[in-house]
From TrEMBL:
One of its GO terms (cellular component) is plasma membrane. It comes from the Eukaryota. It catalyses: a 1,2-diacyl-sn-glycero-3-phospho-(1D-myo-inositol-4,5-bisphosphate) + H2O = 1D-myo-inositol 1,4,5-trisphosphate + a 1,2-diacyl-sn-glycerol + H(+). It is found in: Cytoplasm. GO terms for biological process: intracellular signal transduction; lipid catabolic process. The keyword Metal-binding applies. Signal peptide: none annotated. This is phosphoinositide phospholipase C. Residues 20-126 form the PH domain. The keyword Chaperone does not apply. Its cofactor is Ca(2+). It is an enzyme of class 3 (hydrolase). The lineage of its organism: Eukaryota, Metazoa, Chordata, Craniata, Vertebrata.
């Protein structure tokens, strides 16, 4: 079955929580002014949640697993604390989204169903983060394209492309965008599709500085040997690294099996490493919280702008402590 192959890609084939999500079920959606039952279901792609809607023009709606930041058990959100009773604590959970999308507050029919929803969603989001760089990039691009593709023909004209650029937060000169569009439209169809969209994105986001640093240290046949990588770790990253550390990084992040077999790191593997926490310039010694975090929130000084508590626009949008939490 298609859903089984997709589950296998996530490393979750046969998982009972994933099967539960694929079958779907009713959840009570909690809003400030109403509470209504809605049917939610993981689609067969194992990457999209479908749910029914009572809006006239949006009877069926979806959101991607990639849009989920976290899943909270219990009545942790402001909405659930205000609009549900304490006795349903173990049946409640909240889906927190990335960006400014509002938190989805839900109540399951039973404690066991709430547990399965939370476990299943956490497994999916966790596995999504583990995808290699190419898969993550392509999947994210696909999701942005899906939102920008207004007529749902899986192709993008120049007008839709501009919306796509706004989705991925890229400001670009219109003349330059048109030039790249023409360059990538190898079929001369007036639209971009499939690999052409990926090529457009790659050209737009090319990182010359990464090429420079890789060429500087890749002194072994155009690739980084384990010794080249160690040289980079010692001289650029200023880490107290060993040859064993460099071998471990190649084993963990290199995408090309033939390069991995000879302890080499290609540029794709190098990019994969740089995009992860281990490649961050942030000193991990500073990561631990040493202050007392057990006091009520009003005992602390919150350093923020006056807009931090706003959920939408600053003129008429709602405000909430959820914005601080995010």
């Amino acid at each position: 079955m298609e859903s089984n192959s997709k589950a296998g890609k996530h490393g979750l084939e046969g998982d009972v929580d994933l099967q539960f999500l694929l079958e779907g079920g009713e959840l009570m959606k909690i809003k400030s002014s109403w509470k209504n039952n809605r049917f939610y279901k993981l689609q067969d792609d194992c990457e999209t949640i479908w749910h029914e809607s009572h809006r006239i023009f949006k009877r069926k709606q979806t959101f991607s697993i990639d849009e989920i930041d976290s899943v909270r058990k219990g009545r942790q959100s402001e909405g659930l604390q205000k609009h549900t009773e304490a006795h349903v604590e173990d049946r409640c959970f909240s889906i927190i989204f990335k960006g400014r999308r509002r938190t989805l507050d839900l109540v399951a029919a039973s404690v066991e169903e709430a547990r399965q929803w939370v476990n299943g969603l956490e497994k999916l989001t966790s596995n999504r983060r583990k995808l290699n760089r190419q898969q993550t990039s392509e999947h994210w691009i696909f999701n942005c394209m899906r939102k920008a593709d207004k007529n749902k023909d899986n192709m993008m004209n120049l007008k839709e492309l501009k919306h796509f650029l706004r989705q991925i937060n890229i400001e670009v000169d219109e003349t330059y965008a048109k030039m790249l569009f023409a360059k990538c439209d190898t079929s001369n169809s007036g639209t971009l599709e499939g690999a052409e969209i990926k090529q457009f994105y790659d050209l737009l986001t090319h990182r010359e500085e990464i090429d420079v640093i890789y060429r500087k240290y890749a002194s072994t046949g155009g690739q980084m040997s384990v010794k080249d990588l160690l040289n980079f770790l010692l001289n650029e990253q200023r880490e107290s690294a060993t040859l064993e550390d460099a071998v471990r990084l190649i084993e963990k992040y290199e995408l090309d099996d033939s390069a991995k077999q000879i302890n080499h790191m290609t540029k794709d593997g190098f990019l994969m490493y740089l995009q992860q926490e281990e490649g961050s310039i942030f000193n991990p010694a500073h990561k631990e919280v040493f202050q007392d975090m057990s006091q009520p929130i009003n005992h602390y000084f919150i350093s923020s702008s006056h807009n931090t508590y706003l959920m939408e626009d600053q003129l008429k949008g709602p405000s909430s402590t959820e914005a601080y939490i995010k």
